[in-house]
Design a protein that fits this description.
Shape: globular
Number of strands: 9
Number of helices: 8
Number of domains: 2
CATH topology of the largest domain: TATA-Binding Protein
Helix content: 25-40%
CATH class of the largest domain: Alpha Beta
Length: 197
């Protein structure tokens, strides 16, 4: 787990041209304070380069072990200004994903099924509360617009007497052009913890 984000990541972001970062991501940059303001999953976050800090502008909104904050920093540094392809892929379909997303990097979708069990109506209700848009996949599925260029889908299959409930995350095919595998994992963990809390 992440206890504290390495300050060198903030320094790497600080070395980026703010105009180029704004152009790629659509975020805002305050030249006076040196703060980036970026909207992620419907909420504004401040990236404070001087104090090496990422914080939510929504009081009380927390992230799981700074995973979302790590994602935000890499999103600002590395993402490209390209539109989603509209093609959903699993983590195993991302180049080198089959080898990476296993063992300690298995996406913890059991947190989602652990919360909702066979109550698919509760899954729908809570997904909508978290900004999800219904899509026609699985028994129920929702698209979450994490950033303008990074949608993620959460699929849910209701269990029965033979099979337990199952959840799965899908990513737009273009995510491989935006983020390295470990940051995709960090984002996935944050989504699972947010929906599973």
């Amino acid at each position: 787990m992440i206890d504290q984000i390495d300050k060198t990541i903030f320094l790497d972001l600080k070395s980026c041209d703010p105009e180029e970062v704004v152009s790629r991501t659509g975020c805002e940059f305050d030249k006076t304070s040196g703060h980036y303001i970026v909207k992620v999953w419907g909420n504004n976050y401040c990236v404070d380069l001087k104090n090496h800090e990422v914080r939510s502008e929504v009081p009380g909104l927390k992230t799981y072990y700074d995973f979302l904050y790590l994602f935000i920093l890499y999103y600002l540094m590395k993402s490209k200004n390209i539109l989603p392809s509209g093609e959903w892929v699993s983590e195993k379909d991302i180049p080198d994903g089959a080898a990476f997303f296993r063992g300690p990097h298995t996406i913890p979708t059991d947190l989602i099924t652990g919360r909702f069990g066979d109550d698919i109506d509760l899954f729908k209700k809570e997904s909508e509360k978290s900004g999800g848009i219904p899509i026609e996949l699985a028994d129920a599925a929702f698209l979450f617009q994490i950033t303008p260029t990074l949608p993620v889908a959460v699929l849910y299959w209701q269990g029965d007497e033979d099979f337990p409930s199952e959840a799965k995350l899908l990513f737009d095919r273009t995510i491989e052009q935006h983020l390295p595998l470990d940051i995709i994992y960090a984002l996935a963990v944050e989504i699972c913890h947010t929906l599973g809390k």
